[in-house]
Specification:
The chain is an alpha+beta fold. Helix content is about 45%, strand content about 15%. It has 16 helices and 15 strands. The strands form two sheets. Strands 1, 2, 3, 4, 5, 6, 7, 8, 9, 10, 11, 12 and 13 form a 13-stranded mixed β-sheet that branches. Strands 14-15 form a two-stranded antiparallel ribbon. The longest helix has about 40 residues, at about 335-370.
């Protein structure tokens, strides 16, 4: 019987090729778009979920002096917290380094991101080692750990234990003591290079600092609430006596109420990428709101594809009516007819799925071209992804085919054979589907136009200063007394219109210089990101003064 149903389904697809093509390609494009968006949403949501102990890992940030909340914290924190809180299994700290200079065999590379960390890092975060002693790695100064990709980049091979890299302008020799398997999961910790942290530790006792990103792995019986309680004890035992009392506070309660006091902020590892919006994040985060928006868009596109499939199928009802009437007259039960139409629906969606796989590959390449970041190298890389597509298509086929199957089999044989196509209450629902389809399509089109206009507005909005042809030379403060002479030399260049000494462009976070502003009429002070410049700074940036 099943083979007979499949024959009839194939015959119908072949005999009505134009209709089948429209139905299949419409469904294929809808499934492909929906699944690519789903992959993006899943990728954003999955950040840091692949670490074995992700549920027990927390990051501790800080704020002080009313200058904002920071994702990193003081060096001293992890020297006292584990001693005062037995709920910590292990703790690690990271200092990020940008534009790390790496020299090997006469070749010089500039790596955009590297982490200075300690041996506990690989106990908190379970990366897979290809080579090296996981228990003692980075325990000594001047050690370095690489991913397989970086090892191949520098040496064209992965068996590089004991090899030496020259790091920084000083060309300090670092010995390779570990090689890590390339991680194929999303994480806010993105550096492919780890260096031992000993040279970065300064013994800084001040609590008003933000030098390291501090992570703790709690024991299985400890909770985030326990960690917050422990941090309150650190405030009471260490921070208040050493920072609060010298500032003139007589009680811990008054110190905590002050905007200038030290405050700790705890984020679970899984929440960092989407929910943490602190200053000096170790890497840019995602947008939780966009996840919900894209999820809704994916669902709408899939729903539209399914509704379109239902509408096209029911629109051809008159073409199948006599077939249904004759089959019912010959004794075929409604249950068998429903099974036949469901099989046809599933076959159509499976064929559509094959095209959806091809379209998805094209969409993935387009996504990578537009964003510069691969969403997924290929859908064929992971068999589970292909199985997801197949299962997804089967579900869509069954759900999309349910209504047409029941609708087509509801025809009354006597009236159908007389030429009267009568079905049980199908017209109102079909009208609703058509209106719904066009309504959602119009909403998506309008939203797309609004977003496009907003992007144009962002690109063309007058920011109040000129960005074109302005070049900043960093580290000018290192010139000290020679800075003015350097500026004068630049000004003499024929290609230079104006030169200025300054400490940051508008909107930049090159420096963290904050001032508080408050008038007698203001109940609370406000924090202002402040930039310093000389007399030519206004002219250089093209500021338009209103007063």
């Amino acid at each position: 019987m099943l083979r007979n149903y499949l024959k009839i389904a194939l015959r119908n697809l072949r005999n009505h090729l134009s209709y089948s093509s429209i139905n299949i390609f419409g469904l294929a494009i809808g499934i492909a778009c929906s699944l690519v968006i789903f992959l993006y949403v899943y990728g954003e949501w999955s950040y840091d979920h692949s670490f074995k102990n992700a549920d027990r890992i927390y990051r501790i940030g800080i704020s002080f002096f009313n200058i904002g909340k920071f994702a990193n914290g003081p060096e001293r924190l992890l020297e006292v917290l584990p001693k005062d809180f037995a709920g910590i299994e292990t703790a690690t700290r990271i200092q990020k380094d940008r534009d790390l200079i790496v020299a090997v065999k006469g070749q010089v590379y500039k790596e955009p991101e590297a982490y200075y960390t300690d041996s506990a890092f690989f106990h908190v975060f379970d990366y897979s080692f290809v080579a090296g002693n996981e228990q003692r790695i980075l325990s000594e100064p001047n050690e370095i750990v690489l991913t397989e990709t970086m090892a191949r980049k520098y040496f064209k091979r992965t068996d590089v234990l004991g090899e030496t890299l020259e790091i920084g302008k000083e060309k300090t020799a670092y010995k390779i003591t570990g090689v890590i398997k390339d991680p194929h999961f999303n994480s806010h910790l993105r550096a492919p290079i780890w260096l031992s942290i000993q040279t970065q530790l300064k013994g800084e006792p001040a609590w008003s600092s933000a030098a390291f990103h501090n992570y703790v792995l709690l024991r299985k019986n400890s909770t985030q609430a326990d960690l917050l309680t422990a941090l309150d004890r650190v405030l009471e035992k260490y921070v208040f006596p050493e920072s609060g009392k010298p500032m003139g506070f007589t009680s811990l309660a008054d110190y905590k109420k002050s905007e200038n006091s030290v405050k700790f902020y705890v984020h679970p590892l899984k929440d960092i990428y989407l929910k943490s919006k602190l200053n000096l994040e170790i890497s840019p985060g995602g947008n939780e709101s966009s996840i919900f928006i894209f999820s809704a868009i994916s669902l709408f596109i899939l729903t539209l594809a399914a509704v379109n499939f239902v509408n096209l199928t029911t629109a051809r009802a008159s073409k199948r009516a006599k077939e249904v009437g004759i089959r019912k007259t010959m004794g075929t039960s409604r249950r068998k007819l429903i099974a036949q139409f469901l099989i046809e629906s599933v076959m159509t969606t499976l064929v559509a799925m094959l095209f959806a796989l091809l379209f998805s590959e094209l969409f993935l390449r387009a996504f990578e071209y537009i964003t510069g970041v691969p969403l997924l190298s290929t859908i064929w890389r992971n068999p589970s992804t292909v199985l997801l597509f197949v299962g997804f298509s089967l579900i869509v086929g069954i759900l999309s085919g349910l209504y047409p199957a029941f609708y087509l089999t509801s025809f009354l044989p006597v009236k159908v054979l007389k030429g009267n196509l009568v079905a049980a209450g199908g017209r109102g629902f079909r009208n609703f589907l058509v209106v719904f389809q066009f309504s959602v399509s119009m909403v998506l089109i309008v939203c797309s136009l609004v977003v496009h206009r907003q992007m144009l507005f962002l690109q063309n909005k007058d920011l109040g200063f000129d960005q074109e042809n302005v070049v900043t030379v960093d580290n000018g403060d290192l010139l000290k007394s020679s800075a003015d002479a350097f500026k004068d030399e630049l000004s003499r260049e024929s290609s230079v219109i104006t030169a200025s000494l300054h400490m940051g462009e508008p909107g930049s976070k090159r420096i963290l210089s904050f001032y508080t502003y408050q008038t007698a009429a203001m109940q609370n002070s406000m924090t202002i990101n402040t930039y310093f410049g000389d007399a030519d700074y206004m002219k250089l940036m093209g500021f338009r003064l209103v007063a």
